[in-house]
Amino acid sequence: MSYDMCSACDKKAIDVRTEIIERSDSKITKWIVCRCEDHIDTNVEEMRRLLRLRQEEFKKRLAK
Ligand SMILES: [Zn+2]
Questions:
Q1: Which of 1, 8, 31, 55 could form a disulfide with 20 if both were Cys (CB 3.0 to 4.6 A apart)?
Q2: In-domain check, residue 33
Q3: Residue 20 domain boundaries
Q4: Structural domains of the chain, count
Q5: Is residue 8 part of a domain?
């Protein structure tokens, strides 16, 4: 997935990136969240949720 794209939709991202470090039991996951103009005010939790959905979609597409 390109970092030039918004994490939540297919629009071009503007240059605002948020790094999220997520710790679960044994592993640390780093997320880079990019936002387009529409999602500039979207909070991190919501961005992460949308990013996850997009990644699931992406995997499904690759599997076909
Ligand atoms: Zn967006």
A1: 31
A2: yes
A3: 14-63
A4: 1
A5: no
Centre of ligand 1 from the C-alpha of residue 37, in Å: 7
Tell me how far the alpha carbon of residue 44 lies from the centroid of ligand 1, in angstroms: 13
Prediction pTM value: 0.69
Quick check: is 32 in a domain? Answer: yes
Tens of pLDDT, residues 9-23:
989 999 778 888 888
Task: Please spell the DSSP secondary structure of the chain, one letter per residue.
Answer: --TTB-SSSSSBPEEEEEEEEEE-SS-EEEEEEEE-STTTT--HHHHHHHHHHHHHHHHHHHH-
Q: From the CA of 47, how far away is ligand 1's center (Å)?
A: 9
